[in-house]
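Structure tokens please, single chain.
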Amino acid sequence: MRETKYWTWHMAAGVVIFFLLGLHMLVMHLGGWTHLFAPFGGEAVSRDNSLFRDGKLFFTATYILLLGVALYHGLYGLRTILFELTLKPAAEKAITFILLVGGLGLFGLGTWAAIVVHAAAAAARG
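Here you go.
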């Protein structure tokens, strides 16, 4: 029952990734074409347009959400693949611990970076 719950979260994370990456593609790769969230014209990845987006709390929150669901989806998928090797229970616990600690560390680092960039962009806007 417990593994079914984790697998359901894994699938739900895939759906969230699909929508957030769709938003990312629309803004970043079609932004020069659509001028969506690119008020300064030109390329969507220009410094001014990037600072504009980074200063918005919506984008900071979606970056952090995307980071969290992508880490969960990827690391749980890796864990599932490794468990198919029929390892000993001690090895499975060690793998789970390493992936959990590594994932939390990467999530913390990415969250910190997103918050620092948001604060810097907000300060640059004045």
